[in-house]
Amino acid sequence: MHPSSFKQLQALVQVARYQSVSRAAEAMHVTQPAVSLHLKLLEEAAGLPLTRKQGRNIQLTAAGELLVSHAERILALWEEAGDEIAALKGVTSGTLRIGAVMTAEHLLPPMLVRFTRARPHVRIKLQVGSRPEVIGMLSRDEIDLAIMGTPPQEFPTSASRFARHPMAFFIAPSHPLMTRAGLSLSDIVDHNLLVRERGSGTRAAIERLYQDAGAPLSIGSELSSNEAIKQMTTAGLGVAFLSVHACTLELKNRLLAVLPVPNTLVLGDWHVMHKSDRTMPTVAASFHEFIVEHGQQVIYDELENVAWKPE
């Protein structure tokens, strides 16, 4: 295979991503003929067709699928090399590729703001998803760092705990249960208990909470979105079990309140992790060090004026 340029590899990656020459051209800030020329030269170098027309879209051939995976790694390595050179100059730069489970999307932005404020050359690529989605992104090297409660078991990772993860029952302040005395876990399940789907950290936590208490757990509604659970709860349609970090804004604006059930505040751990067999890029290593050192304090600052502990 003859040598090819980075522009040709970038064109293939963008066409694979968007399945369109025009959208690839927009992403690369070049003309459509330029992208088409890059693909033609790359196909000549490969000696095989790399793309094919499928209706209005462009799809990769088997050779294209093979080449694009190598192209992505080559381009990522080239970007890492640039970051390493910048580090030698005393500048932290590059793209911080980080993934977080949905519950962590509320606690991560304040940390990213503080991190990038002192490092203006750093770009952020944050991807939020379910736990299986984030684990998949980490396994495929689509992200360098992942934020979640419990490290995955599917492949070796190096995980560091950086903060406690409080979880509690939430309710609309006007809900009748707020004025009821002597609440227990058994009382909650009669009021449409709203929880996340199986596999999420908060779902595992509430299942352990009821199991340890020897109380029967009856799920009222199961949703895959923290936002949907919060909206239903603020409307008075049930009792939610959620991360305190996910409800900070609602607590500050008195849209939600922590239900005062004794001994039901659950404290888990937040971890930042990377694949054990892969060296972290400089910018990822820098953020890893920052979050382990300052993550807990940033979270305390965010929760300082919020009443989140059951009375």
Give a description of the structure.
The protein has 311 residues and is of the alpha/beta class. It has 3 domains: 6-83, Arc Repressor Mutant, subunit A, CATH 1.10.10; 93-158 and 272-294, Periplasmic binding protein-like II (D-Maltodextrin-Binding Protein, domain 2, 3-Layer(aba) Sandwich), CATH 3.40.190; 164-268, D-Maltodextrin-Binding Protein, domain 2 (3-Layer(aba) Sandwich). The protein has 11 helices and 11 strands. The protein has helices spanning 6-18, 21-28, 32-46, 62-88, 108-117, 131-139, 185-188, 201-213, 226-234, 248-252, 282-303; strands spanning 51-54, 57-60, 94-101, 122-129, 145-148, 157-171, 193-196, 221-223, 239-243, 257-258, 266-275. Strands 3, 4, 5, 6, 7, 8, 9, 10 and 11 form a 9-stranded mixed β-sheet that branches. A two-stranded antiparallel ribbon has the order 1-2. α1 (6-18) packs across α2 and α1 crosses α3 (32-46).
List key phrases describing it.
311 residues; alpha/beta; Arc Repressor Mutant, subunit A; D-Maltodextrin-Binding Protein, domain 2; 3 domains; nine-stranded mixed β-sheet; two-stranded antiparallel sheet; elongated
